[in-house]
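hey so i finally got around to running the thing on that chain from the lab meeting. sorry it took forever, my laptop kept dying and i had to restart like 3 times. anyway pasting the input first so we r on the same page abt which one it is
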Amino acid sequence: MWLRGLLGRRGGRLAAAALGITFAVALLAALGSFLGASKATMTQRSIDQVAVDWQIEAQPGADLGAVVSVLRSDSTVAAMRPVGFAAIPGLTATHGTTTLTTGSGIVLGLPAGYQATFPGELRRLTGSADGVLIAQQTAANLHAAVGDLISVGRPGRTPVKVQVSGIVDLPQADSLFQKIGAVAGAQPKAPPDNVLLLPIALWHRAFDSLATQRPDLIRTQIHVRLRHHLPSDPAAAFTAVTAAASNIEARLAGAGLVGDNLGAALGAAREDALYAQILFLFLGLPGAVLAGVLTLMIANSAADRRRREQALLRTRGATARQLLRLAAVEALAVGLAGAVTGLALAAILGRTIFGSASFGATPGTAAGWAAAAAAAGLLIAAAAVLVPAWRDQRATTVAYARRMLGRPERVWWMRYGVDLWFLLGSAAVFYATSRSGYQLVLVPEGVPTLSVSYWAFAGPALFWAGSALFCWRITDLLLSRGRPVLARLSRPLAGSLSGTVAASMSRQRRILTRTVTLLALAIVFATSTAVFDATYRQQARVDALLTNGADVTVTESPGALALPALAQAIARVPGVSSVEPLQHRFAYVGSDLQDLYGVRAATVAGATRLQDAYFAGGSARQLISVLARQPDAILVSAETVRDFQLNPGDLLRLRLQDGPTGRLVTVPFRYAGIVKEFPTAPRDSFFVANASYVAARTGSPAVGEFLVNTDGTSPPVVGARLRAALGPAAGISDIMTSRRVIASTLTAVDLSGLTKVELSFALALAISATALLLTLGFVERRRTFALARVLGASSRQLGGFVWCEVLFTGAAGAVLGAITGWILSLMLVKVLSGVFDPPPAQLSVPWAYLGVVAGLAVFGLVIAATAAIRAARRSPLTVLRDL
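ok and heres what got predicted. didnt touch it at all, straight out
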């Protein structure tokens, strides 16, 4: 009967409380979908990016047949192919009277069906995909084409001549030529510059005789593709794959070592999985907490009414147990309605955004997330309804509960400055976690486990709590001590009743303070999430541009001599708008070999959109202009400046290769500034100098790279046209492909989905915080409006009361929320710097989205004001009789 009466008389209020629980449950469950989809995508992408799962190298003297037998007996092995490796002194090609010879290299022996079994290991550029194949860089070094004869050197034996059938690229050369069994943490060895691929039968004829005399030059590997029945969590998949690799090594008993390429890829994905959990805590959890706070405030808006109803029941003989049972019925109804609706909404969001209605990566995880989200909704309902009822019946007398008037009491935490202590603690934690060298995700060298420094969450968490309480304090202070100011500001709307309006707002400051605080927090959540997402997308573009250099980059092979005039041929390709030549040389500073980039100072800044964050001690244009004014100036990486203790203006003597003679010559430079990042440059040590000065001192204008910008045509399309025009000798990469390669599996795939969920809920919370709380507050004051009508107040005067409160709520919430949201955005970007590469020089603000948030908040305010004014126009006697 009690529940039926609540639904009949208080149905709107119960629906409002259930809506808050719906938001909390839906957001938590949708975040479960995010984590599940993220981890499943990370695992699948890690699998897809590996061509050969295992490279098992037979040890000297081992029986290759026994190794194959062990692999065949393993149920996880789907396919395997033996591959021969032979180290050679060099390759030779003759063109007329010219003979070209390379340095040392590797000849691979590939069995039939290798490319079908491992399709990502080779990429055909021209010619046949079978027969004798030559790597792209080797073909450039030898100026070789399809049909040319290549002489393969063999130590102590006559060379073998083979005819080239095709030219290929080796996308995964780093793993293909890895040193299997290397000590963990050892510096990886660069892949060979010269590679030839032979059919396995031809390879055996060429090198079997050499294996008996020089076994150190010949080795055999078994390349393995596994059955990918792995857990969707990359950490669990990593554990399964590495355990299987260890099992194989144990069964081989020293006959072979396993190069676990799949395990290495999954190991890298584990860090992304931890960042997914971090983003859930930093970005998602505050929204769920905010939805819970909204429910508590909705329930609290009727606290006085509920207290009076309980007092009436107590005067009629209701016991404490009966009151708690009635409150429990209300809490259960609200909690179940919100939980069921929230799970349904989360399933729809998961299906729409993440492609799966499941709340986790596995059925067990999905059930756990759903149960946890529903339990959170029930707990919020209990905290909003049941706990206040229990507290009131234990600590409140019937007479006190039935009073209609009373001055708001100052809450206890204001007296002790809890909000200020929270903010001080947040600043201390933020300072510790944002200092140089701090790592949020720890990846210990050689240790299979990863860890997260979770105490870093204390900074944003304390700031959330402290800023919420501080907004409450500021609003309460304005309403209690700022009555003269409020009276002056409300005069345009309230006229002669402005003083009465200010007094009314001061008297009702608990309701207004609650609404302003929640509106400010909704704006903080929307602002921080939107700015973080926009800043990430900005830096993802910057990172791709930094890696690729431009929309499309043409890289010449080390053996090729590309002159600046080649830029004219590139510019004639359809879709190309501009071409910027970039020298790429190698220079010795002392005994250290580093990359040197020669640039055209007048045009490079615009051609590759240099960022000020790439430089130290000045902006990009300022330091690049130094190269134009002072031809011998040079920009040095921070690591080199530190290692060699350089000071501005120091003379720096570098040894570069002379073009005509090929010998090293000493070229003097003047250290002019620090460059931290540069397009296409490595991340550690490099130089940036004036291209004309480098060309003049070395006698060679050769260009290593051409940075190509498009006219709006898709970069992959322009890249394909350039590949057709320039042939296989040049390496061509586009920014879209580079972005897919360099972006982590988390940020490339799922961060957009996470932000869609959060930004949608932020919009919903913004309008709910304004419309619901203000409307419910006005409903609770129907008696006040009715009495004012009885005393002669006109509809216009009552409208002045309402609009003054609405405008105060909107203005105070917007100002406090915007300031707090901006500070929190700075904090999140700094603490989560591991997600950004390179770190942003400034935040990106999505003004369009924030404008939508502001518009919805204003819309909610107008709805609340309109509903209140309409209710105030009802007959006073009808309202008082209903109450």
